[in-house]
Amino acid sequence: MRIRYSKYEAGFDDLTSSEMMEMLEDLLLDSGFDDPYNRYNPDPDHQPSLEDLYDALLRALLENDRIPQEWLREARFAGRREETRLYQEIQKLIQRLQSEGFIRVPGQDSMQQAAGAGQQGEAADSRFEVTQKSVDFLGLRSLRSLLGALGKNAPGAHTTRHYASGVESSGETKIYQFGDQPTLNIGETLKKVIPKGLEQLEEQDLVVELSEYTASMNTVVLLDCSHSMILYGEDRFTPAKRVALGLSHLIRTQYPGDQVRFGVFHDSAEEVPLGRLPSVQVGPYHTNTAEGIKLARKMLRKMPGEMRQIIMITDGKPSALTLPSGQIYKNAWGLDPIILSETLKEATLARKDGVPIHTFMLAREPELLAFVKKLTQITKGKAYLTTPANIGRYVLLDFLTRKISKN
User: Fold this and answer.
1) Sequence-ordered alpha helix ranges (H) in 264-390
2) How is 378-405 classified by DSSP, letter by letter?
3) What is the pLDDT of residue 79?
């Protein structure tokens, strides 16, 4: 028997795409908290660059001690990093992420073109986008983390106070009516049929099982991305995004009839597509809650169905208002009566639309508590005091267990 030995070639071939995505999670969910110059980006279309992607992979590989020493020595003394083995191998990882559908580079047919000779500068400046596959990966990881201690029971549909036939038995019964699902209660039906004989069977002799009526739910998740969400030594916005991604994954996999959309509010407010959500960073300083609620109401009007709700995650009182002229009126000191009044007007309009607002507060300042108390009273919603460490568990647990009634 002859054994043949081959020279070991170091590389990252054993690194899976899932492992790479875990390494990149902080980059893909970056909220601007680690930016030493506080260069927040209010643009919801902000995307990290390929240079950011390269640096994040390099940092993760170094932290996990995955880079051979000879590659590091070569990189230390190389004139051009593009000529080093380390650079070329990391570029292969980026190409693999693109070929496997985790990222895409608009305007480029392949990462190989971007890394080709004479195009290095363009490649370094290019922006990449996460795909739906990446969003699903991040959402599933967030969901597993957030629901890790909630038990093994699988989630069901949203229950209501109403009953119907043919869904999940409630133990109640009623006389059959045309259109009911034929889930007969045999015992009760026989009690009516036996005395009169089967040949005399009539429609009103049939007794059907009643079940809890389930309905679809339309949800708009409003995320406060004002600058306070990364101030005070705590990143509050990244946990909020994790919640939103986990909630989206939960709805798409367990509640196929439901819809969820996302909006962010700061000095103003705008809708954010799910694919853009991971890369959204904190915006300008102030909190225009009224504009956020107005945006959510507009989004819900475009979604079919009557059962609707707003989930708002915030850490500050309203401090900005969009005037009829389009100018932004701002006052960060105390609870401004003008801003408060206009914000509560939007809440009243939401209540008239039959839309409750459920608020999760990431801070405990008196002005925020006072505002949320009034908001909750007006919209018949719920309010929760929470922290970035446990907000996801509260949001998702409430979503799974809350009894929804159709007004």
Assistant:
1) 289-301, 337-352, 366-379
2) HHT--EEE--TTTHHHHHHHHHHH----
3) 81
Residue range 230-289, pLDDT digits in tens: 877 788 888 888 888 888 888 888 777 888 999 999 999 999 998 888 888 887 779 999
* Residue 31 amino acid letter: S
Interval 316-357: pLDDT, tens? 889 999 999 999 999 988 888 999 999 999 999 999 999 999
Give the β-pairing of 259-265 and 320-322. unpaired
Report DSSP state, residue 305.
Answer: S
- With pLDDT > 70 as the criterion, what percentage of the chain qualifies? 68
Contact yes or no for 229/31 (Cβ under 8 A) = yes
What CATH class does 218-401 carry? alpha beta
Q: Token pair of 320, please?
A: 């900005």
Rounded to whole angstroms, the Cα distance separating 350 from 140 reads: 31
Q: Is the dihedral of CA 350, 355, 356, 357 positive or negative?
A: negative
The amino acid present at 344, given as its one-letter code, is: L
Split at pLDDT 50, 70, 90, the class of 397 is: low
The whole-angstrom separation of Cα 39 and Cα 41 is 6
Asked whether the beta carbons of 305 and 406 are under 8 A apart, the reply is no
Residue 28 is which amino acid? L
Scored b (16 or more CB within 10 A) or e, 312-350 reads: bbbbbbbbbbbeeeeeebbeeeebbeebbebbbebbeeb
Residue range(s) occupied by CATH 3.40.50.410 in the chain: 218-401
